[in-house]
Design brief:
Helix content: 40-55%
Radius of gyration: 26 Å
Structural class: alpha+beta
Number of strands: 15
Order of helices and strands: HHHHHEEEEEEEHHHEEHHHEEEEEE
Length: 401
């Protein structure tokens, strides 16, 4: 449950009167949503429960359930809005001398060489469509994997999904779980209000309700149904993206990898692993808006396969070979290789009997065959001891250069 990523402060920017006005205008959608919530609270609790419902037990149950859904909805909405976006760490930012070299380069090839030299110790696997290092000329940084520049926030954001005006914030690595829960609890909130007010809406339709409060109940039912219809498609789409380990941007344009090129399934690790990457591995906190996402927002397990890697891996089961991943991490300014144990990946995503097939891929510390360069990745394919306790470990070095 611990927060593994470290957020970094934005560079200082000058703000004038126009900037203050723009920032104020951006809060209008949030204030609109908040006003709808306040009105729905009055319409449901006061007009429906206290003024219309006559049975005391029914009134108590309706109010208690309403406050549970309302609390979870507002909590996740608050977290989505006010959690700081995950910014790119300073080691990805180029020095002014390096930026000047890039801008003064005589050719694109020379620019690419400068970026390649600077990025050789950074844990990045994504590239541009031309195969070059992804560089943001606005922030003067080398973009980590899945990071993009947000024109609204004015920063490069880790694992950017999209900028949402309804929360006045970027949906990114730091609040993506909160955003999913916000959509889910908002949908449940609307469905609950619609179902609870349906019997009294029918009474209004038959002319059995009197007083001005009946119009609040009428609009309460219609507004909750309209929002539920719009939320069900949005929530379903983002659940679909979570299970495939894609962002909204990656759904429109597949990420490009140094090995394998464009691959829309490049970050997919299977439905369960994809879900746990966002919601964490502790089931107790899956549906609470507290940060439990795995990783640091900079490096991600990836699956790739090309002909050279397949030949080096010995042509074993291709479904498992694609799960061999490269996950370097940077700690204290030095590059280390993180030990990762992943479950078998199945193309059809069906469960298999653990007794019949319990193969896993692991990344292990370098072995003694030859000195490793910075671009080497050690892949080990381990088969659990079978057939009388015999085991087979083969280690292969893949040179990325």
């Amino acid at each position: 449950m611990s927060q593994n990523y470290q957020n970094y402060s934005r560079p200082s920017r000058r703000s004038g009167p126009c900037d203050c006005c723009v920032r104020a205008v951006k809060w209008i959608p949030v204030l609109f949503i908040f006003s709808i919530i306040c009105w729905s609270y009055y319409a449901f609790v006061v007009q429906l429960c206290f003024m219309t419902v006559e049975n005391v037990a029914e009134r108590v149950i309706l109010i208690l359930l309403y406050h549970v859904f309302c609390f979870l909805f507002l909590w996740s909405y608050y977290q989505t809005i006010f959690v700081d976006i995950a910014l790119v760490p300073p080691e990805f930012r180029l020095k002014s001398t390096e930026v000047q070299k890039i801008y003064s380069a005589e050719s694109e090839v020379e620019q690419r060489e400068i970026l390649e030299q600077y990025a050789q110790n950074l844990p990045i696997t994504n590239r541009t469509i031309t195969g070059a290092i992804r560089f943001c000329d606005k922030c003067c940084i080398i973009k980590p994997d899945r990071a993009h520049h947000c024109s609204v926030c004015g920063d490069c954001v880790l694992k950017m999904d999209h900028h949402c005006p309804w929360v006045n914030n970027c949906v990114n690595f730091s609040n993506y779980k909160f955003f999913i829960l916000f959509l889910g609890y908002a949908l449940l909130y609307c469905i609950y209000i619609a179902l609870a007010s349906l019997p009294y809406f029918i009474q209004f339709w038959k002319g059995h309700l009197e007083g001005m409060g009946r119009f609040h109940i009428l609009f309460l039912f219609f507004v909750s149904v309209m929002f539920a219809i719009s939320l069900v498609s949005l929530f379903g789409y983002h659940i679909y993206l979570v299970l495939l380990n894609r962002t909204t941007l990656e759904a429109f344009r597949a990420p490009i990898f140094r090995i394998g090129g464009p691959d829309k399934h490049g970050f997919s690790l299977g439905h369960l692993n994809n879900f746990q990457e966002v919601f964490g591995d502790d089931k107790r906190f899956w549906f609470l808006p507290v940060f439990t996402s795995l990783g640091d927002g900079i490096t991600y397990p990836v699956r790739f396969m090309d002909e050279d890697a397949e030949s080096l891996l010995g042509g074993e089961d291709r479904r498992h070979d694609e799960r061999a991943t490269f996950r370097p991490i940077v700690m204290n300014g030095t590059q280390q290789r993180q030990h990762v144990t992943l479950k078998p990946y199945h193309d059809d995503l069906e469960e298999e009997d653990d007794e019949e097939n319990d193969e896993v891929f692991t990344r292990q510390q370098p072995q003694s065959r030859r000195p490793l360069s910075d671009d080497d990745v050690v892949v080990s394919y381990e088969r659990s001891p079978q057939n009388g306790g015999k085991s087979n470990n083969d280690h292969t070095i893949i040179d990325f250069a």
